[in-house]
Design a protein that fits this description.
There is one protein chain. By secondary structure, the chain is an alpha/beta fold. It has one domain (9-235, 248-298, 329-464): TIM Barrel. It is 42% helix and 15% strand. It has helices spanning 16-19, 32-38, 56-70, 81-84, 95-110, 126-129, 139-154, 167-175, 188-209, 211-214, 235-258, 264-269, 313-317, 339-352, 376-394, 440-464; strands spanning 9-13, 74-78, 114-120, 160-165, 217-223, 226-229, 291-294, 298-303, 319-322, 358-362, 367-368, 400-406, 420-421, 425-427, 436-438. Strands 1-2-3-4-5-7-10-12 form an 8-stranded parallel beta barrel, surrounded by 5 helices. Strands 6-8-9 form a 3-stranded mixed sheet. A two-stranded antiparallel ribbon has the order 11-13. The model has no long low-confidence stretch (mean pLDDT 97). The chain binds ligand GBH. Ligand GBH binds next to helix 8.
């Protein structure tokens, strides 16, 4: 009967580069996304940039009002590394950046909202990119120093930390396809390896130096589509779907949760380009205090062979995923509505990773084209998806601790610029005030939260009397 635990986290997520603007305000350093969007040959939709975006750097109090209006218990935001440490190192701290995040965190706590803080959401300081970025074996230690700085500065008020958001996307789109900053090709496995090492260092730093005093939890947000065989009776398609999961979720979850190494199927398929963990200290295995999952969509998967040509991830994977024509689209070719896939993926996570506590740290659906304030389809999407999460908890026994909608606000959607709107609030980007207005989907999500919170309160009162 749809019973969520009373302390279930009902949240929404954002990321610094996507909402803050103030790209060079008050001593902020340049990030790789600033540089990527400012290129003369920028590949971003209509050459949009995050220079101003939602202007949350100046309008953060508006964001707090939106959070309150939704009745969120939790809010997930990311810190801009180059706003805090303009050249990426702790050699120079930008106090204005520290002040900014202090205001936001204090504002959340004053309103009874629990922050979840991501240290890195795709926006490496350009100064570190100039030193090799994620392709360099020196970057993990620099990330660790940044993480320790953040634990020290903000950890008295933050209990839920995400080190890196979606290393898959940063590695695959940023270092294989060249579609995301820094626009590198052919270096995904190497970049991913250094991100895993960066994460592990930061987790161990927290464990050794901060956990006792601060009592928080640290994880990495891992994204994956759900993958099911295109032909349910085909053993080849079943193997292809398993490979698809191994190359997305497994790439980062296996080292953290299973073996301290990449999945066997990756090892079997990829040549020497897949780095080794042997001798790597500290250990990567066991460095996640909960499972943080970003889920958006699903794929029907079939086996494909790629003959000849240069080595590529596509060739290594030997599989291809397509969208079921029955799943509604929203104008973004990759994003089909498949809420059932979330339940399936949660079951898979429970079975594969030894029943971890799970936070769904992102999930959402977009609109493209003319703005629709009465976005009934998106409202239905949230209703159905939360229903699937309820089934995962009640019928499958998955230990789901929270659900975060992507996103609080319409924002800069990476290569799609402002052409795709994921917000629970509409943002008017043509107006200096960047007015925020709740969509019907926002009203729906607020109603879902209020219904479930009063149900679980009533349930507790009944069972404790
Ligand atoms: C999340 O990634 C991000 O964390 C967030 O910042 C973003 O705003 C949100 O999704 C919505 O997109 O263009 O065909 O190569 C979600 C996982 C994986 C979805 C890569 C888009 C690109 C497919 N993303 N995918 S394609």
């Amino acid at each position: 009967m749809n019973m969520f635990p009373e302390d279930f986290a009902w949240g929404a997520s954002t990321a610094a580069y996507q909402i803050e603007g103030g790209w060079d305000a008050d001593g902020k350093g340049e990030s790789i996304w600033d540089a990527f969007c400012h290129r003369d040959d920028s590949s971003v939709f209509e050459r949009h940039t995050g220079d101003v975006s939602c202007n949350s750097y100046h309008l953060w109090e508006e964001d707090l009002r939106c959070i309150e209006e939704l009745g969120l218990t939790h809010y997930r935001l990311s810190l801009s590394w180059s706003r805090l440490l303009p050249d990426g190192t702790t050699g120079h701290v930008n106090q204005q950046g520290v002040r900014y995040y202090n205001q936001v965190l204090d504002g959340l706590l004053a309103r009874g909202v629990t922050p979840m803080v991501t240290l890195y959401h795709f926006d490496l300081p350009q100064a570190l990119q100039d030193r090799g970025g994620w392709q360099s074996a020196d970057t993990p230690a620099l990330f660790d120093a940044y993480a320790r700085f953040c634990f020290g500065a903000f950890g008295d008020r933050v209990r839920l930390w995400i080190t890196l958001n979606e290393p898959y996307v940063c590695a695959k789109l940023g270092h294989e396809d060249g579609l995301h900053a820094p626009g590198v090709r052919g270096a995904a496995y190497r970049a991913g390896h250094h991100m895993l090492r960066a994460h592990a260092l930061a987790w161990h730093s927290y464990d050794a130096g901060y956990r006792r005093a601060q009592g928080g939890l640290v994880s990495m947000a891992i994204n994956s589509d759900w993958a099911e065989p295109e032909d349910a009776d085909s053993a080849e398609d079943a193997a292809a779907a398993a490979r698809y999961l191994a190359f997305s979720l497994g790439w980062f979850a296996w080292p953290l949760f299973v073996s301290g190494d990449y999945p066997e199927v990756m090892r079997a398929a990829v040549d020497a380009r897949l780095p080794r963990f042997s001798g790597v200290q500290p250990a990567v295995l066991g460095t996640a205090d909960f499972f943080a999952l970003n889920y958006y969509t699903a794929r029907k998967v079939r086996s494909v062979g790629v003959d000849g040509g240069a080595p590529s991830m596509k060739k290594d994977l030997g599989a291809e995923g397509v969208v079921d024509p029955a799943w509604p689209l929203c104008g973004l070719p990759w994003l089909a509505v498949a809420p059932h896939g979330l339940r399936q993926l949660l079951k898979y996570i429970k079975a594969t990773f030894n029943h971890p506590a799970v936070y769904i740290t992102e999930n959402g659906f977009a609109q493209t084209g003319p703005v629709l304030m009465e976005d009934g389809e998106r409202a239905a999407f949230y209703r159905e998806t939360v229903g699937e999460v309820a089934k995962a908890i009640e019928e499958d026994g998955v230990d789901v601790r929270g659900y975060f909608a992507w996103s609080l606000l319409d924002n800069f959607e990476w290569t799609d610029g402002y052409g795709a709107r994921f917000g629970l609030f509409h943002v008017d980007f043509s107006d200096d005030e960047r007015a925020r207005t709740m969509y019907r989907s926002g009203r729906e999500y607020a109603a879902i939260i209020s219904k479930h919170r009063s149900r679980s309160r009533a349930h507790r009162e009944l069972t404790s009397s």
